[in-house]
Amino acid sequence: MTDRSSNPSAFTHRAFAKLVMDAVRAAGSSKPFHYDPVGNVLRHGDSTLSLHKAYESYARSSAEGRADVVQACVSACVEPERLPLTYSDSRDSIVPMVRRMSHTLAMAAGKLTNDGPGVPPHVLLTPHLTVSLAISGRSGVFIVGGDIFATWGVGFDAALKRATENVARQTDGTWGRSDEAPGVYSSPWRDGLDGSRLLAPACFARLALRGDPVVLAPSDSILVVSGSDDVPGLLSLARGVRSHVERTNSRSFLRALRLHRGRWSHWMPKSPHPAANDLLYLWALDEKSDYDDQGPWLRRFASDSGGVIHVASYVIDESESEGTVRTHTTWRDNGPHALPETHFVQFRRDGEILGRARMKSVLDEMGPAMKTLPGYPVRRLVMNFPTPAQLARMQLEPVAGDGDFD
Q: To which H or E segment does residue 18 belong?
């Protein structure tokens, strides 16, 4: 039998979590486990362990080093590290934690379904990214929940200000460069908090970029940067990150961020920019991750509420001949659907694809019958399949082949 743990490049986050759980069980623990794949967080009894940093260390270590990483995780579960009870003991180790919005809200969904800690206090960095607080400890990074602030006697805003100051003091190091892609830089820290440096924008000022910094995060321990006016650099950035994600299946955030006049915002160059399609693919992959994160708890919440909702999938279509990226979802004639926002909607009845229409045409035709659901990302609830007359007014386009069975 092949020992997959000897090949960390092929090792998924979930497989690493199972490796840790098996090791904890072997150490004699009988406490219950819950693994949260959205946040890559392992809960063991009353302890919570973020596996991001350990996973990155495991992937970079020798066989002996990997055993040490697993043992450190076992120790953290069996003898969990506790948050300091006083703010004076905590303030020097507080750091900001940048995460996708869907990850943060999935914690709130966990509370709705009685198996999660609930949403932590946070602010928005962009419409798709949140900033919460964490404690960087000996065995990992621990998310700071709302209850601790009353114990500390300090508000979230004051703690966030201190956390930002802390991470601003942790920006030393030489950014990596490659001879093959001289306009692309990779972050030097590799500590599971690389994304936190977005709150210390001065560290990007020392990079020799053409234009504003444009950033992607293929993992929590990698930031990759190029300049907004560097066409070959952006192409190398997009293709390098895409290759990394497809090889490792890891990602932190893949919607490109641009730092302009001291503020981060999501950014996409306009076609026919050479990097546009690869960046759009990464954007769509991030959006698909958001919908995938949302789907399971939305199904469970509907079931617990006594209803049945078909949570339609978000599908990425890429034309190999044209290199274009589009997205679609499928609306079937079998009951209520929660539809994601995509470029196209395919319509299927009794196994037959009737055609597709642009989402805007569907929204215009269906009007109030498409109700926007609360929460993130945006989904629209539809109760009844369109009538033949409505489908005719949408002017459906044919779908090549059999379409995607999503």
A: helix 13-26
Q: Do β-strands 140-143 and 253-260 pair in parallel, antiparallel, or remain unpaired?
A: unpaired
Q: How far apart are CA 160 and CA 282, in angstroms?
A: 30
More confident residue, 300 or 259: 259
Q: Considering the entire predicted model, what is its pTM?
A: 0.83
What are the tens digits of pLDDT across the range 101-128?
Answer: 988 877 655 443 344 456 889 999 999 9
Mean pLDDT across the chain: 87
Q: Which residue has the tokens 């201190």?
A: 162
pLDDT in tens, 161-203: 999 999 999 999 999 998 888 899 999 998 888 999 999 999 9
Neighbouring C-beta atoms of residue 332, cutoff 10 Å:
16
Q: Residue 250's CB: how many other CB atoms inside 10 A?
A: 20
Phi, psi of 356 (to 5 degrees): -140, 155
The C-alpha atoms of residue 167 and residue 341 are separated, in whole angstroms, by 36
Q: Residue 155 and residue 294: Cα distance in Å, rounded?
A: 30
Residue 12: C-alpha distances to residues 55, 58, 293, 332, 367 (Å): 9, 11, 17, 33, 42
| Residue 237 contacts residue 224 (beta carbons within 8 Å) | yes
The DSSP bridge pattern shows strands 337-340 and 310-311 to be parallel
| CA–CA separation, 288 and 306 (whole Å) | 27
Q: What is the SS3 assignment for 116-185? A: CCCCCCCEEEECCEEEEEEEEECCEEEECCCHHHHHHCCCHHHHHHHHHHHHHCCCCCCCEECCCCCCCE
**Where are the extended beta strands (E) located within 273-391?**
310-311, 315-318, 325-332, 337-340, 344-349, 352-358, 371-372, 379-382
Q: What's the pLDDT at 295?
A: 84
CB-side neighbour CA atoms (13 Å) of 91: 14
**Nearest CA among 294, 272, 303, 271 for reference residue 374:** 294
**Would you state the pLDDT for residue 4?**
36
> Is there a contact between 250 and 60 (Cβ–Cβ < 8 Å)?
no
